[in-house]
Each structure stands twice: as structure tokens, then as C-alpha cells.
Amino acid sequence: MSTNLTAAVAKGLSGRNGKQDGKQDGKRERRRLSYPVVLLIIAGVLLLLSVLRAWTGAGDLTSSGQYGGALIAAVPIGLAGLGGLWAERAGVINIGLEGMMMLGTFCAGWAGYQYGPWAAALAGVIGGLLGGLIHAIATVTFGVDHIISGVAINILALGVTQYLAKLLFGAEGSEAAAAGGNDKQSPPMDDMSRFSVPLLSDGLGTLEKKDWFLLSDAAGILRGLTTDVSWLTLVAAGLFVGTFFVLWRSSFGLRLRSCGENPTAAESLGVNVYTYKYAALLVSGGLAGLGGAFMAIGVHFYSDGQTGGRGYIGLATMIFGNWRPGGVAMGAGLFGFMDSLQLRGGGDTVHALLLLAVVLLVAVTLWKLRATSRRTAAISAVFAVLLVLWYAFTETVPREFVEATPYVATLLVLALAAQRLRPPKAIGRTYQKGQGK
Prior knowledge:
Distance between the termini: 17 Å
Mean pLDDT: 87
């Protein structure tokens, strides 16, 4: 059945422009990066960061503290992005990731102070599942517009969590209030145990302190990723790997993705489209809820406004990652790095990154000139010159700009990635059962 389903979906997608789509798919296959090329890109980025660190003296560019903070910031963003990937691969736009994360943070705070951090993680997943279920009922069963349903979930989650926080945490004379809770936050929970890679962490720390070009920079980055790591971070990494194998290496994943590409063809071959869309949205909500729980566990309590728009950044990460787990992970790492910068007050580091942006813009300019896109090349060149002037006439950047860097990076990355995106064909479309019969 999997072979027939693949052929039918491909045929349904091709339509009148089958030959053109085939050529485009062939180009996409040729553009996929091989592992040696990916390793070369990583080595090039590391070399560039090392040069910038040595040139500008901005030690946080490659410090273990910066990358440890980036890893912590990247996990909830990545889980939200992964949740969005599950939903949209099944054809359902999930703007409600932010609300599902809110439900996850609240449920984690409620369970965490009573039963511990692992119970908080499970409760966060359940809270997100409830949000995903509401989104599924609205969009799949009743055919509500996906955007409207997602926005409604965000508003509903905000109101529900604030009301329940007052009721459960801030009620006068309650057990939660006596334990330290109030209208805005839950009582504190126990810390979740962390781990460091034996021997490697200490050795990398020694090498980082040597201040050797490239070697110490690589050691600082690796030490940040292997020291004082939460066990939930390993769970998140496993979920990324598991998502790849489930969605791209199993018949279940093929059927689920067919619902986002051509649900009519999928249903004509016996796939229950409603069931797969429900499953995708439940997983989507659960992942977003786990991302919210990670944030609550990290600071040991739930607090009002804790998600801080990370559900929306996760959605941007999914788009930047072209609806692929590896791309989502890379995007989450980038946004986590920027988030860590503003948490560490990295004005000098952001100032140094202006030069990195100049290098990238010059590369874009040369690439666009080669592709005879002179207008885009000229715009990139102008921005590169402006950034050079900004760097030359300033010594740091304002703290307000540093705090805005995650959102600025979101806009810039989406603008640069827009030309290579390939969303699922039937994403956002309302599908009524029986259309494939």
C-alpha cells in the first residue's frame, strides 16, 4: 500500500505541471547538502567565529557560558518548532503553539511543586495535548479556519492560565499560597538533576582557558554543550531523531505526510485522513507543552508570561528549517544563541556580530550577482556598508537592541530563507471527509 500511496500522492501533486514539478524536485534533490559539505560549513563557521573573537576581543562569541545558555534557550524553541512540523506536515497550520506552551508551563508548575520535576514534564505534555485536541476538533472536525483557531487558542490559553493561577496558586489560605505561590506564579519545585560528560567536560575547560586560536574556541563551544546539561535536553534530542525516523522512515509517517500533500489521493487509498490529522495535532500540542514545561522546570516554577513569544519563534524556526527536523534544530540553535546573548547582556558580542553579518551580506551579494539578480545584490551591498559604518563609529550596541536580537534574527532569517521554502501542498486547506471517494 505504501508504494501505491506514494505513486498516487505524486500523481495528485503533479497535475498539469507534472514535468515541471519533476524537474523542480530533481533540482531540490541536487541541492541537498551532503555530510562532508555540512562538516565543511561547520568548520568554516567555527573559523569565522574564532577570527572575530580574536579580532574584536568579544570572548562570549565562543565561550562555554554562552553556548550552555544557548542550548537551554534552544530546547523550548526547538520543541515548539518540532510541534509545528508535525501539525503542518499533516496539513494543519498551528499558530496556537504559543498557547499550547502556556498550558504546558502552567500544568508543569501545578504538578511540579507537588510531585517533582519529572511529573511536571509529564503534566506539561498533557496540558499541550489538550490544546492540540481543541485545535484538532475546531479545524479537522468543524472546518474552522486554521489561523482563527490558532489565535483563539492563544487568547484562551492566556486567560485560562491567569484565572487558574489566581484560583490554585494565589487563593488566600491555600496550601499553594503557603508554599510560596501567588496570583502570578506557582510555588517552587525541586531541581531536575543535570549531568556533565565525564572527563571530557574538565578537559575542554582546561583547553578553553589556554586562549589558543581555534582550539580554545572549539573547546569552549563543545564544553557549553556537554556541561551541566538537563536530562530533558537529551529527551528533546531524542524526539528530533525519533521524528525523522517516524515521519520519513515509516509507513505511518508516509500516510501522515500524504495528508498534508494530497489528502484526496490519500483517502482514495484507504487512509483515514481525520485520524492522522488528529494524531499529528496531539503530538504537536504535546511537544509544545513539553517545551513550556522545560521552561518552568528550568526556573523551578510557573510564572505569568513565561513563554515570552517562544511559540511564535518556534513557528518561525519550523519555516526556516523548511519543515524538516534537521532544519528546525539548526534554526532553534541560532535563535537560542541570540536569546542567550540578550540574557547575558551581550552588547559587545552583538557589536562583534555586526561584522559577521557584513560577511554574510557580502556572500549574498556575490551569490546574487552570479545569479544576475542585481537589485537584491545592490540591497545586500548597501546594508553591508551601513553595518560597517555602524561598527566603525560605535563601541557597543544599546541594551534595547540586544534584547530585540532574537526577534530581529527571526525576521532576517525568514527573509533570507523565503526563496527556498517548500511547504506541504495542502497546508491550511479545509478538508471534508469523503472527498477522496
